[in-house]
Sequence to fold (71 residues):
Amino acid sequence: MSEEVKNSAAEATAKTDLEKRGSRKTRIGKVTSNKADKTITVAFEIKVKHPIYKKFFKKTTKFAAHDEKNE
Fold:
């Protein structure tokens, strides 16, 4: 019986690991560079409200993404 308990505990932790990994965000942005081999740089832009002046401004974040086929 102790083996059954260990197996069920291992399955529970494996499921939680998959759930954590599956909860990643999918983002859409503009490709800014494709000069590297099998890697592209994507710029993601969001609008942020200034805390004092209440005006929106753009904030850009760059991500490196894998591109297996160099498309």
Notes: The two ends are 53 Å apart (CA to CA). Helices lie at 2-22. The first strand starts at residue 30 and ends at 33.
